[in-house]
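User: Can you help me understand a structure? I only have the sequence.
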Amino acid sequence: MDDSIDYIRVASQIYTRLEMEYGFATPKAQNNEMPETWIFLASQLQRLRVEEVHCWNEALNKISDEGNEFPPKIPKLLKVMRGIAWKAEQNNKQKQKALEEIEYKKTVVHSDAAPKLEQLTKKLTVNV
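Assistant: Let's start by predicting it. Here is the structure, written out as tokens:
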């Protein structure tokens, strides 16, 4: 659990977005129980890693793009949040690996070129 995240506030923002997008966020029977629903969602968000919690808006965008008539259930929302965070991690790992390869190639090229440049410099000074 990360103390820097206000999970109740995130849950509130999620439900507000769902209400604005779908006209409702929970079945009518639960409307007068919204604070308890927020608390439950907040408890589920606490189980996620910080990176996954920060993906809530992108997850709702992805779910919205599917064109469903009804708001997503909490397990689906959490699954999509995890998936988005996982993809972001994989992309970051690939970027880091590519940067490491570029740095390695720079080092190899530099170490290969340095002796050759030194030889060329000697030839030039001898020829002059």
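Now, to help you interpret it: Residues 7-127 form one domain. Helices lie at 7-22, 34-45, 50-53, 56-65, 74-127. Let me know which part you'd like to focus on.
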